[in-house]
Amino acid sequence: MAQQVQAVIAPGKNEPVRVETIQIPDPGPGEAVVKIQACGVCHTDLHYKQGGISDEFPFLLGHEAAGVVESVGEGVTDVAPGDFVILNWRAVCGQCRACLRGRPWYCFNTHNAKQKMTLLDGTELSPALGIGAFAEKTLVASGQCTKVDPEVAPEVAGLLGCGVMAGIGAAINTGQVGRGDSVAVIGCGGVGDAAVAGSRLAGAAKIIAVDIDDRKLETAKKMGATHTVNSRTTDPVEAIRALTDGNGADVVIEAVGRPETYEQAFYARDLAGTVVLVGVPTPDMKLELPLLDVFGRGGSLKSSWYGDCLPSRDFPMLVDLHQQGRLDLAAFVTETIGLGDIEQAFARMHDGDVLRSVVVF
Ligand code: APR
Ligand code: ZN
Ligand code: ZN
Asked: Where is the Enoyl reductase (ER) domain (predicted)?
């Protein structure tokens, strides 16, 4: 029997989102219905609403979520009703070239639910990042569910499903930040702050936060930044070099996604250092670099996709570290809101007032 629940829909390009009743089918083979307890509001949800990701409206928004498995379909053995899970948008297939070569974080053969959720008139919904969790319940592939310690607060756990994982993973997985390293993070929004927190977890000795907004630098300090640089008033490359005995940082993480900040990251790294691009550029962006500088400075230029995470490995670990008081995920939650407040949350995000607004059910 299909169920009816309340959910937030983006009906058309740039149209305001609205709360609607949707229909959720019973889980089919390999699928699960999850009762959502919390879901963070991410920039990507706004990009869906603006038509920047796909034109397959209407979208069922929300993808940074945690909840409890309500029912599972045939053949599902990895999760069971009652399990507390974090949802992920990268259920790896285990069979593609990336998976078989041991690089499952580059699996693009994502497993989503095969059945569709619909509006009451039968119109099929496109769930954001294959999840759609601004809803009392949602239908996903069971591989999108990762069991974690049920004692953790849902509004904190859900954040690991996207932005916070992207930032922490940029530091610990992609950047391979090590004990005693110096790290610089350029752009300290939610993703950059998570990269700061990840660098602290990894034991970095110096963590230099760079932003153009002093409010962001204050928050970055709470996440573990040991030094801050306002790049509106100070040349960040010179400042990072000065703070690292003239060398540059071992790892520089770019969390803005712009050519000028990438160029700063490139020159702020130590010889043989690592640059990690986690900010997402737009298709028109270009950057010219002297090839001799690429050659002469050595090291590696990497990009980080969803923090190069493995949900089954990283979600439970980060929840446990949070529960032990070694990673303050609660610091990322600026406010909790209701399902009807998402338009206002988008506006506050745009103004740079919040790290994360989280819908709680
Ligand atoms: N130099 C330094 N910091 C900058 C600059 C700049 N030129 N321009 C913007 N910033 C800062 C902003 O002040 C803000 O603190 O970068 C931060 C960006 O943060 P958010 O807008 O909150 O974005 P966030 O969610 O952190 O995502 C950052 O990662 O996943 C991607 O698509 C996402 O590209 C985006 C990036
Ligand atoms: Zn795969
Ligand atoms: Zn997201």
From this structure: 12-359
